[in-house]
């Protein structure tokens, strides 16, 4: 009996070790492109374009200085493009959360008969390809005088991320005991007071998860930013194309710019990883 138990524990430990080894190996493989991008970004200008790549060199931050000072010799500073991306991403996230929280709460109310069908329809709209909306949004933005402005990007970004925000928050609210809401209403609390004083404090991890997803998707969006902006509200992903031209690609500057785009998202994910896990697993274990 003791031998069998020891064998079972040994097998479980071996499976854990193999599983973790596989996950770490997969993680390292996924980091290879990022590491190569970063290494290229700190190479001197004459070495960054060499093929095959040079691995022995004197690291320099000249590419970052060039990108942030004047966009690598281009007409726009990449620092301003990063600022535009931050404004648009945070604005879209705030709008999606402000609209998504009340919508998710309404879709959990038991006296709302159409809540299940409407919830499924809202989730299905997430499969709607954004590319088919580019021309209508372009026309509307032009007629309203919103071309090359922050609202021209904030509103579409919030709209396209709203289904996943509503679904995440709705699923989290459904895990909360409904008796808590009933008890508050018996004590005289209004629907708004229940949402603000009871639901919202318990919903913070899920809100953080939805906010991070919205920020990431808005930060990386390219199609609408390319179509609806020129220079005033141009975002960083669109600005990457200024480092390529008919005479070639400036790999030192373009990898430095790409690193500046990726770095805030990596930092955000590392800082909020616990909130992300808590929000995604909320109610998974009872």
Strand order of the largest sheet: 1-2
Tell me the number of structural domains. 1
**What is the class in the CATH system?**
Mainly Alpha
Fold-level CATH name: MetI-like fold
Please mark out the parts with pLDDT under 50 across 5 or more consecutive residues, or reply none: none
CATH superfamily: MetI-like
Mean pLDDT: 84
Order of helices and strands, N to C?
A: HHHHHHHHHHHEEHH
Count up the helices. Answer: 13
Task: Characterize the overall form.
Answer: flat
Descriptive account of the structure:
- It is a single chain.
- The relative contact order is 0.14.
- The two termini are 33 Å apart.
- A hairpin with a 2-residue loop joins strand 1 and strand 2.
- The protein is an all-alpha fold and 286 residues long.
- The chain has helices spanning 2-41, 45-48, 62-70, 78-106, 115-124, 134-143, 151-174, 178-186, 191-220, 223-228, 236-239, 251-271, 273-280; strands spanning 244-245, 248-249.
- It has a single domain, classed as MetI-like fold (Orthogonal Bundle), CATH 1.10.3720.
- The model has no long low-confidence stretch (mean pLDDT 84).
- The chain is 71% helix and 1% strand.
- The protein is built from 13 helices and two strands, in the order H-H-H-H-H-H-H-H-H-H-H-E-E-H-H.
- Strands 1-2 form a two-stranded antiparallel sheet.
């Amino acid at each position: 009996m003791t031998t069998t138990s020891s064998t079972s524990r040994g097998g479980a430990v071996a499976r854990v070790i193999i599983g973790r080894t596989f996950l770490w190996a997969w993680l390292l493989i996924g980091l290879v492109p990022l590491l190569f991008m970063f290494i290229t970004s700190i190479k001197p200008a004459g070495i960054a374009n060499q093929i095959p790549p040079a691995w022995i060199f004197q690291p320099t931050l000249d590419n970052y200085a060039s990108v942030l000072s004047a966009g690598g010799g281009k007409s726009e500073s990449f620092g301003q493009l990063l600022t535009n991306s931050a404004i648009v991403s945070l604005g879209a996230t705030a709008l999606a959360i402000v609209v998504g929280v009340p919508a998710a709460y309404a879709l959990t109310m038991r006296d709302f008969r159409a809540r299940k069908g409407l919830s499924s329809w809202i989730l299905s709209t997430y499969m709607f390809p954004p590319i088919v909306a580019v021309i209508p949004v372009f026309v509307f933005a032009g007629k309203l005088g919103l071309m090359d402005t922050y609202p021209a990007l904030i509103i579409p970004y919030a709209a396209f991320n709203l289904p996943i925000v509503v679904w995440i928050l709705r699923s989290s609210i459904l895990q909360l005991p409904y008796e808590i809401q009933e008890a508050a209403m018996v004590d005289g609390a209004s629907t708004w007071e229940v949402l603000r004083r009871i639901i919202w404090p318990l919903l913070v991890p899920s809100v953080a998860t939805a906010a991070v997803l919205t920020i990431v998707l808005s930060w990386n969006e390219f199609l609408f930013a390319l179509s609806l902006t020129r220079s005033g509200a141009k975002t960083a992903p669109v600005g990457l194309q200024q480092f390529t031209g008919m005479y070639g690609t400036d790999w030192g500057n373009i990898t430095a710019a790409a690193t500046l785009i990726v770095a805030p998202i990596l930092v955000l994910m590392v800082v909020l990883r616990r909130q992300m896990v808590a929000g995604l697993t909320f109610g998974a274990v009872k």
